[in-house]
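Sample 1 of the test manifest.
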Amino acid sequence: MSTMTLAGAINRGLRAAMDRDPKVVLMGEDIGQLGGVFRVTDGLWKDFGPDRVVDTPLAESGIVGTAIGMAMRGYTPVLEIQFDGFIFPAYNQITTQLAKMHYRSHGAITLPVVIRVPYSGHIGAVEHHSESPEALFAHTAGLRIVSPATPQDAYDMIQQAIASPDPVLFLEPKARYWDKGEVDESRVASQLDADGGASAATAEMSRGRIAREGKDVTVVAYGPSVRLALQVADAAAAEGTSVEVVDLRSISPLDSDTVVRSAKRTGRVVVVHEAPTAFGAGAELAARVMEQAFFHLHAPVLRVGGFHTPYPGSKFEHDYLPNLDRVLDAVDRVMTH
Amino acid sequence: MDAHGPLSDQGLVQLLNRHGERLEDERFSRYAADLDLEALLAMWHDMTVVRAFDKEATSLQRQGELGLWVPSLGQEAAQIGAGHALRESDFVFPSYREHGIALTRGVDLPEILRIFRGLQHGAWDAAEHGFHLYTLVIGAHSLHATGYALAMDRDGLVGTGADSDGAVLCCFGDGATSQGDVNEALTFAAVNNAPIVFMVQNNQFAISEPTTRQSRVPLAQRGSGFGIPAVRYDGNDVVASYAVARWALEHARSGQGPVLIEAFTYRMGAHTTSDDPSKYRSQADESYWAERDPIARLETYLRAQGALTDDAVDAAGVEAKELGRRTREAVKGWERPPAASIFDHVYAEPHATVEAERAWFARYEASFADQGVHA
């Protein structure tokens, strides 16, 4: 075990994946000498060279599109989109090409492309640097979307995403990049070295986890909101409410089984994410909980998230994003319904 | 016609004119030097085969057997010329009208119609034929082609002088040159010296819009801004089409980087069977280009050389008829796979949402079977 930041854990995970497979190639803007604007690829250019850590032209569609062609010849491109709000020039390549090639080719072509995206807010940034676009991609079949909340998951899941034969959108909670935690580097290594490692890795990164057990309310979160959900659990406990926290980890597939099992125990569900609630992951989860656990519910499923406005100027982001008070308010409402 | 515009026919490389006469070109004749009469007959054969197939497919659409068809009529020389310049070690990224190149890559032509009958989105093994699946989003594949070319370079398949050297041929049309993806592909290919030939078939129309809506200069001129050598040629001349494509592919295969070639041609048919060209172009225009038919001029030349006999023409007619029969039978004979197959190959590894929906659909279908309503 060693202590790492979440960003450092991704860096270590990338390094391990590149050591494991010479076909893994990193591509993105400023990821080489600079090490990326968040320094997630720091040191990799120096150690692996410019053919393995490629500074691309400044064109997101070009990054994803050329990665598709490289993957067709057996490479595993791991792309960095510099910021969430800059992924949209590549939206067509991701949704009409990357996501659909396996289907279009009847399984003959697999595209093991990983797209790393620093996402979500709370960093006081200018426009297009704080968004949470996961729902826009989750609607597209053929993509997997995961988001780690801890350094351990970041270390494991980046390698599992790279090992997966499917395209994966790997959403990195940028405000959590500097959170520290203990990381065991041996477990994912033995998983990937074993026979069927890629399948096991894909299955594991697609499952959520119970981040804290509780019995009164299930608070579901992922990525940057997991820490908030745990703070909510602490605060609620002080008031006598026992909160169970589910860290989804995966948005596509959405591990609703874990949520439904928890909902059947607690009878109350609050979903938290930074993305707008309208048509978001929480809406999908609420529908599934209603379909599968309706008669166990003591209260309607509530959502806490961003509003149906553009991401506002950073002086407003603490009002726009879910915070402790807004989630506690939702917990109170499901408890008193 | 603006002599400097994108529809100008000035300054095109031409080795076989519309009267069926061979011409010399200082730069490109030597790339056609290996084309003996036998080779030209083989090209003529392929051009007639793909035209016959195209005609049959159009009929099948009119009869309601296909949802749509995309005719290649008029573009046979550009496609067959390029196709014959390819090596097995090359890889083609077509757009969706490259039925002629498909033929030269060994794709059994009727198989293409699985797409247009609505059975599947891709109908051949791309790796087996060195011919990628058709891409319907205009220009999107130009980036895949560039990435594929860069991977060939990484794999040591470029510039070694060995027969294993290869290049990518990426096909798109005049409309695609306005797409961001095509411009990004030219950028990525240029800065990385990718072994790729970008082949624009300027058939003068993006559905109804003439090339003047895409550019104010000939499309080949786009190359210079990217630092990519470019050549513009008569795309209805199969000899020039072969020679220019051969030059371009050799350039790319030998590690000298990307090339842009523009085949100036004419879409003699409609954009698709849903289109009506009479809304946007004149009969006179169509007649002008009918006189420049790519197959007719080659026939004139081959007959003048005594290489094409009535017997050979008759034999080709019989073959075309047989292909038509085989195509009709194939199309009408294909069985639709079970509906549940729509859940196959969405992902390479199981995905919970797909599996849940697959299971629900199976139960739903089984509920009809219980009632004896649905087989």
